[in-house]
Each structure stands twice: as C-alpha cells, then as structure tokens.
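Hmm, what's this shape?
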Amino acid sequence: MKESRLVSIASDAVAATQRGLPPEIRGAARAVPVRFESIPAADVLADGFEPDLLGLFTGSPLGTELSGGDLQPPRIFLYTANLWDYAEEDVEVYRDEVRLTYLHELGHFLGWDEDQIAARGLD
C-alpha cells in the first residue's frame, strides 16, 4: 500500500481515538503533535531503538516541560511501514495497531511509565 494511504488511515485512526478519550485528557492528547513517518530515522536507530519500532514519544512529559532537561517539544511518532508490516498488511489490524501504539505513546506523554501503561492494557 502507498505511504500516503497508510498515513491517511493512521491519521483517521488517531483522530477517532482522540474523540473517544475521556474529556479530562482529550485536550492534552490533541496538544501533542503526531508525526507519521515510514520508518525510524537514522538518529533514532543510533539511540539504540530497533528498526521495527512502531511508535515513539519524544520530548518532556506533560507537566514537566519547564523542569526537564529535554529541549525538544513533545511529539509522538508513528512508523507507518513498520505498523503495516506488523499488521501483516491487514487494514483493520493496522487501524487497531495504530490506535494501540498511539495510546501507548500518549501514555508516555501523560507521564506514565511502562508498568503504568501495561496496567492500562496499552502495551
């Protein structure tokens, strides 16, 4: 499938997921930009991440922007080609995995660690 179509499907899945979030976190979720890239960039891989990474949160978690040492703005990256491969080229599985990966990375933005994310079923 063409990358532009994967991005369109993923963008729609993220928007639908945001609409379904509880009101108390919906605004925060909409405030963090989501970037769609085919695969992780070379600098991400150089940081030790695997080439088949599905998503990544970068920047400071919500509420720590002024106290953290990270000067990057918060962003969520979703890697569409990796998600498509993971979904074995099934559109419905792809949508579901985009949703789950987005929620996982949103959890990091909200300041949740891996255990807290797993406790919410977002791992």
